[in-house]
Amino acid sequence: MRAMVTGADGHVGRLLVRYLASQGDEVTPVGRDVDLTSTHEYGWNVAGVIDVIYHLAARMTEPADYATRMLPLLFELKPRRIIVVGSSKQYGPMPAGRPTPEAWSPKSLTEYGLGKARAEAQAFDLGRDRGVEVVAARPFDHWAPWVPHRFAVSNWIRQAVMGAKTLRVGN
């Protein structure tokens, strides 16, 4: 399998690149140092030979539509499938006490969540127009050793390691 991973130097991207390579996939990592939105110099030699693109890229400290500016360029690479990795931040406030159905309309309160929701919608539109399969995932918290403690799971692990008898949660 020939894969490209955007956000390859982010929290999840680093792990995904390692995993795909361990499974024998040929991986083209695209990290912060490569800006596909401003150049056509990188990656065009792989047009038509990438099987799947894992689109994880988003910048939490910059305008959240970074991911949407990149998507049309990714579709130019003519992959068979694009997996758009969003975030639970897309949901915004959810009804308490019951599961959230996939049909729940995103009502994000953050630029990051709004940007991820726009990227997902744009990917489905581009996929329909260009005949590319699009898959969306909205993972909730994830963890890696380098994830800052401001994220829930990382914070809970830190508390447990430090001997907390009760974990502090919430905003």
Features:
171 residues; alpha/beta; 5-stranded parallel β-sheet; 4 helices; globular
What does this structure look like?
The protein is an alpha/beta fold. 31% of the residues lie in helices and 14% in strands. It contains four helices and five strands. A five-stranded parallel sheet has the order 2-1-3-4-5, sandwiched between helices. Helix 2 runs parallel beside helix 3. The longest helix has 20 residues. The radius of gyration is 17 Å and the shape is globular. The N and C termini lie far apart (41 Å). The model has no long low-confidence stretch (mean pLDDT 81).
Major sheet: 5 strands, parallel
Q: Rg to the nearest angstrom?
A: 17 Å
Helix-and-strand structural type: alpha/beta
- The ordered H/E elements are EHEEHEHEH
**Broad shape:** globular
Give the % helix: 25-40%
The percentage of residues in β strands lies in 5-15%
Total strand segments: 5
Put simply, the count of helices is 4
Q: End-to-end distance, in Å?
A: 41 Å
Ranges with pLDDT <50 over ≥5 residues? none
Q: What spatial order of strands do you see in the largest sheet? A: 2-1-3-4-5
Mean pLDDT: 81
